[in-house]
Specification:
Dihydrodipicolinate Reductase, domain 2, binds nicotinamide-adenine-dinucleotide, Rossmann fold, seven-stranded mixed sheet
Amino acid sequence: MQTRLRVGIVGAGFAARFHTAGWRRVHGVEVEIAGVYGRNPERAREFAARHHMAVFSSWRELLDRVDVVDICTPGATHEALAVEALRAGRDVVLEKPYTGYYGPQDAASAGAFSGLTFDREAALAAVRASCRRLREAIAASGRRLGYAENWIYAPAVQKEREILEKSGGQVLRQLGEESHSGSHAPSYGRWRESGGGALAGKGCHPLSAALYFKMIEGRGRNGRPIWPARVSAHLHRLTQLPGYLDCGWLRTDYADTEDYGQMHVIFEDGTVADILASDVVLGGVSNWIEVFCGNHRTRCNLNPTDALETFVPGADTLRDVYIVEKLQPRQGWMRPAPDEDWQHGYPQEMQDFAQAFAVEREPESSWRLGEKVSLTLAAAYLSASREGQTVAIE
Ligand SMILES: NC(=O)c1ccc[n+]([C@@H]2O[C@H](COP(=O)([O-])OP(=O)(O)OC[C@H]3O[C@@H](n4cnc5c(N)ncnc54)[C@H](O)[C@@H]3O)[C@@H](O)[C@H]2O)c1
């Protein structure tokens, strides 16, 4: 057992913040954040100063100095960074998306690429190939890969996992959503950088939870997960409609991605999950999944929850108080998150990854789940381009 882990953070943006906070809450395994490396050196230096850690001047320096590489960079970089880290013999934490399709990355063909028109069958083939390369790199390295899907570790999802395991429930139907009024990231909305719109960026979360619950059910009943087999999907660009009335509250600058998506997933056993994702929901994030079984029904509310309810008449009273993600304005009745990171499962995922790497076991959220999520999403985009025709995932 390795009781001390040196972690290197790659990327110095939004996700790097909650990964750092999560690592610092790990107990039972000694975690040292060795430092951060980012492509933008100034941003990396600022991040390192703000979060009291060293800064690496190169990717190579980070690789040489750590046991765990924590990848918090945009999706287009995920496969290359993860494969290199595994080849160097490091355990890896990989943010979502596990992998995806970003179009041609060379400057010559990039100009002609549009997220609205590319060949989605070729994209599905490219995602399959990327999954295969990652799988081969993991197998060859003998190391572990933690897929940083925080929904798996959210307390609401873990409580339903316990209910499912102990009650032996059969999940017949699931309905889940992640939505809000639009991502903070400037790259979001341009397919070559984001690898898709609401369906990929947000839908991946409830989709992961839905796949996880069927994994748990299958493991409990037959000793093997029940995987998704087929998917159909529809996408829309609601804020780009000619008749869209812009009231100023929703983000609208989506160059070539959808702002609303829905997918219908059919599992190997014929049961189903319906996933919704959008950028057109006001009132803060809307993150939930409902599980319908023959012996129980559970609604997992990740955000908002009603642990805290606050009424504020003044527009400026809570100017300096964090409430929940993407909530504007901060007035009237609100449900501030007492500990949003915990509610989202961020510290718990780092706890599981640290323990898994220390004793060399698979994390609860591993490459197996990440791979299925990426394949399901790529098949969903192909389905949407065929007016919702059902597409086989493998
Ligand atoms: N699980 C969640 O709730 C959640 C939330 C937000 C973002 N994410 C995921 O986290 C990842 C990062 O998103 P973000 O919002 O933090 O983006 P961001 O733009 O805020 O930060 C990205 C950082 O990566 C750096 N970077 C880019 N390419 C790099 C490279 N090749 N090598 C080293 N550094 C590089 C950038 O300089 C920047 O510091 C994405 O995959 C995103 O999908 C997950």
